[in-house]
Amino acid sequence: MQRTIDARLAQMEIAAHQVGFNEIMTDDGSAKVTLSVPGTAAEGDRTCTSGRLCLWAGDYYDHDKVTLYYCKFTNLGKLRPAWNDRLTSYLNHQTEGTRAKFYNYKSGGWQFTSVAPHREPDLARYNGLNNMIDGVRPC
Q1: ω into residue 38 within 30 of 0, thus cis?
Q2: What is the pLDDT along the chain (139 residues), one digit of tens a residue?
Q3: Contact partners, residue 49, CB within 8 Å, separation at least 6
Q4: Residue 40, SS3?
């Protein structure tokens, strides 16, 4: 796992550092990437703490996860592994009524909004939304 973390850190387009066995945090504290550990069960949506917007690469809150901490736009393509076009499930666990906006650059920008509290276990249920998000503004 350490080799994987080191490789991801070397590829990041945003300054970042390792904060846990399988976790990378951007230096500005705006996003944390949690890499799934091979051979272990998925931790699921219970790992998304209150006040956060959490994104998963797999359906039903599985695989790698990104946790967003601040109300600022995040270009998912600058994280490593690159997160653009990988979002499959998310949990908007922010303050009630907080609106998260999801963007796709190829389709001209804003695609959909999630109003907290809201969960979406599988974007594949909606035509064209799975694996197409490039950026997120949590609030």
Answers
A1: no
A2: 899 999 989 988 889 999 999 999 999 999 999 998 877 766 777 889 999 999 999 999 999 999 999 999 999 999 877 889 999 999 999 999 999 999 998 877 899 999 999 999 999 999 889 999 999 999 9
A3: 67, 93
A4: coil
Question: Which of 91, 137, 136, 138 has the alpha carbon at shortest distance from 117?
Answer: 91
Cα Rg of the chain (Å, integer): 14
Q: Given 2.60.20.10, 3.30.70.2190, 2.70.98.90, 3.30.70.260, which CATH number is that of 2-137?
A: 2.60.20.10
**Distance of alpha carbon 122 from alpha carbon 139, whole angstroms:** 21
On whether the CB atoms of residues 124 and 130 are closer than 8 A, the answer is yes
The reported pTM is 0.90
The tokens for 49 are 């703490």
User: Concatenated DSSP letters for 91-119?
Assistant: EEESSTTPEEEEEETTTTEEEEEEESSEE
